[in-house]
Every structure is written in C-alpha cells, then in structure tokens.
Amino acid sequence: MSTLSVFLFSLVDFVGSFHPLLVHLPIGVLLLAALFQFLSQKEKYQSLASAVGISLFIGMLSAIASCISGYLLSGTGDYDEGLIFNHQWSGIALAIISIVAWYLNWKGKQITWITALMVFLIVLTGHFGGSITHGSDYLKRAFLAEASGQAEEKRKPIPNVQQAMAYQDVIKPILTSKCYKCHGPNKQKGKLRLDMPDFILKGGKGGKAIIAGNTDESELIKRILLSKESDDHMPPLEQPQLTKTELDLIHWWVSSGADFNKKVADLAQTEKIKPVLLSLQSEEKAEAALISDIPEKTVGQADAKIVQELLARGVAVIPVALNSNYLSVNFVALDSITAKDLQLLEQLSKQVIWLKIGDSNLDDNNLKSIVKLSSLTRLSIEKTAVSDAGIALLNGLPKLTYLNLVGTKITAKGLTQLKSLKDLRQIFLYQTAISGSEFSQLSKLFPKALIDTGGYKLQFLESDTVELKSARVN
C-alpha cells in the first residue's frame, strides 16, 4: 500500500472520528429553530422569526457535516450494519428536510408541517444512534431492571462451581458486563466481537483475541494488562474496569486451553485459582474471598541481618505489597527446616503475615515457633506431619484468614479446635482424614470460610514441566 493510500485511509478515520462530536450540534440547533418557529407564530414572540432562518441554516450545515462524518465512520466496520443502515438513512433524510425547511423559510413560505417532520426525524435518528452506542434495548433496559429489583447487573451465585461450564457460567458473564458495549452484537470496535465463540476465535484487526494455552500472545489478555493510560487498554478508561478476580478467571481460562464446552472441573487449576473459583459459589463467600488480609496498621522494617540469613539459607523473603514492610516467607526451596530457621523466623514475628512452610519436615512441636508469629494471616502447612495434637496451637494466631492443611492427617475433630478463629476465610482440606459427610458439618462450624474439599481433576498442559525431587528426610 502506497504512502498516499495510507494517508487517505488515516484521513478518513480522522474525519469520521468527529461524528460523535458533530452529531449533537444539528440536534440542538434544529430543535431550537423549531421552537423559534412555533413561538414566532404568536404576536408576543414575532421578533423570533428572524432567528428561525439563522438557526435552520446552521442546523442544515451541521446536519450535512454529521452525515459526511457518520458515513466515513461507518466504513470502519466497528458497528452492526443493520443499525447503521437505519441511522444513516434517517440522518440523510433529516439533512434533506433541514435543507428544504431552510429554503422554504428563506422564500417566506409556511414551514409548520415541515418543521414537525424535521422534529420527528431528529427523534428517530437519535433513537437509532442510541441503539448503536447503547444497544437496541437501551430504552426498556432500565425499566426491566427496576421491575426485577436489580438496578445493576449482578453475577448470580453458582451452586457447584466445579460442575459449572467454564465458558458459559464463568467467563461469558464477565465478557457480557465488561466487553459487549464495544465488542458485542451492536458494535465491534476494531472489528472484534466477543459475544459468540466463533467470533472470539476469529479475533479482530489487532489479531487473535485469544490463543489457547498462550496468554502472552493472546491480544485480549495483553490489552487488559496494559496501563490504563494507554489508548489500547481494554476496557477504555471511562468504562467499568475488570476486577482482579475477573482478570484472574480470564487468564486461567485462556491458559488452561480456552475450551468453550468443558466444565470447570475438567480444566487445569492452580492453587491460586482454586479459591477464586470457589468464591463464585455464593455471594457471601465471594465477598469474603475479596477481603484483604494485609493489615492497615503500619509496621517497622524487618531486621535486615535476619532477612539476609534466611535468604542465605534459600528461604524466599519478599514484601507482600509495594512500599509495605509486611513480609511473605516461603520455605519451598529447603529440603529440611532446622531449629535455627525457626528461631530466625520468630524474630520477624511483627512483619511476617504470609508463611508457606508446607511439604517439609514440620511437625506438631515446630508449631510452637509458628504461633509466635502473631501477625500471621496466611499459613500453608500442607503435606507435613502436623496432626490433631498440634493443630490446637493455631488458636494463638487470631488474625489467620487462610489455612492450607492439604495432605495432612488432620481430622474433623481436630479442626473443630479452631472454631474460635473467627477471621478464617479459606481452608484447604483435601487429602486429609476428613470424610465427605463431615465437610457439611465443618461448613456450619466455619460459615464464613471457603472450605475446599478437592474432588476435581488437574490436567497437565503442554507447557507444564515436571520437577523430580528426592525424598526429604526428617
């Protein structure tokens, strides 16, 4: 394509982009002309007759300019052709009638009937324009929402998220509320339509919207993750933005294969996404899962020497958030935890709020050191020798909101010892000594908590790697 052709296409897009700005001018000016014409028929307001011609002339020119810019904008292919047809030809009819009205008024003819027709066309053209930008049901939508007692669209709880359809029940509601306005049946910005699977897979001018199993190359994910100040960020800054939960769910769906026909349980699930999915099962639990477990109260910096000693041992020690002194500590790289490690950890009791020390030689006796971390809100002690005898010690952690006991010998009786921990919001209990019938009792004992019982499959993706480790010796 030549440089001249590129320039002409850019010029067309530039002129067309003025249509939303220009289109309001003829509406206001021509309605004002109609009002002046109506009032001038009364003796008291006859002086307004001279203003009718001026208003019609300005309105006529702006109507013509709106038709030209609107025609150029329609060539971008961003809008539904049926709605464009109605809006385009009613706008052209309005421009023609405004020319006729101006001419007849200039000739001193009576224009009462032509003015009434002009007002009708203004309303009709405006209605078709509203259908393009806000949807064909924009007039009745508010009344239907009010009648149903729902002023705002709200996601319905999913009774059993693992048996729900991943796309239809989890992903589509997100796209409906956050994407359809620009990429739905009425408007397809960038020629991208996201309301049907075939259109999602087809993509738009920017390329493939999603590439199954590859979030880095999926244009939809890339646009969502752009800075809000970027012109390419989705959704646009003035529109409702995706929440972290919604972004996590879309990212998970794409990375796990972007299948439109599988259930949630049939897709690979990381430890990170499980509580997010579980939070969709009820409104209360969804709200609870969003509660931040980072204390609002500030804390002083951790002893740098202690932190360095832990880092030298291979322990991951990082801030939980930018400019925060609260710490997340992860012992995942250690083959064996020593008494020295726990002593160092105790000296960071004010700063450590997230601790992952699972899949280790931790036992009931070691929990005496863990409970000294009085600020702890998250604790992962999965696949350890912790038992009912030691679990009661965790009552010394009143701020605990997250507890991972996967793969331990904990029983329902042992877990009931923690009923005093009122802030618990997430408890992971699969592969424990707790039976199916006991889970319902625990749900009543911890009504505010998301209790993950497992029972679903994990699938390996082609991009997954397998790490072989030697058995740990206590």
Topology:
Elements: H1 3-16, H2 19-22, H3 24-40, H4 49-74, H5 81-106, H6 112-134, H7 138-147, H8 166-178, H9 180-183, H10 197-202, H11 219-225, H12 244-255, H13 273-278, H14 283-289, H15 304-312, E1 316-319, E2 327-330, H16 339-346, E3 352-356, H17 367-370, E4 378-380, H18 388-391, E5 402-404, H19 412-415, E6 426-428, H20 436-445, E7 450-452
Parallel strand pairs: 2-3, 3-4, 4-5, 5-6, 6-7
Antiparallel strand pairs: 1-2
Number of helices: 20
- Tally of distinct domains: 3
CATH topology (fold) name of the largest domain: Leucine-rich repeat, LRR (right-handed beta-alpha superhelix)
Portion in helices: 40-55%
How large is the share of residues in beta strands? Answer: 5-15%
- Low-confidence parts: 144-153, 283-291, 456-474
Biggest sheet: strand arrangement? 1-2-3-4-5-6-7
Order of helices and strands: HHHHHHHHHHHHHHHEEHEHEHEHEHE
Q: How many E-type strands? A: 7
Tell me the distance between the termini: 70 Å
Assigned CATH class of the largest domain: Alpha Beta
Average residue-wise pLDDT = 82
Structural class: mainly alpha
- The CATH superfamily title of the largest domain: Ribonuclease Inhibitor
Q: What composes the largest sheet? A: 7 strands, mixed
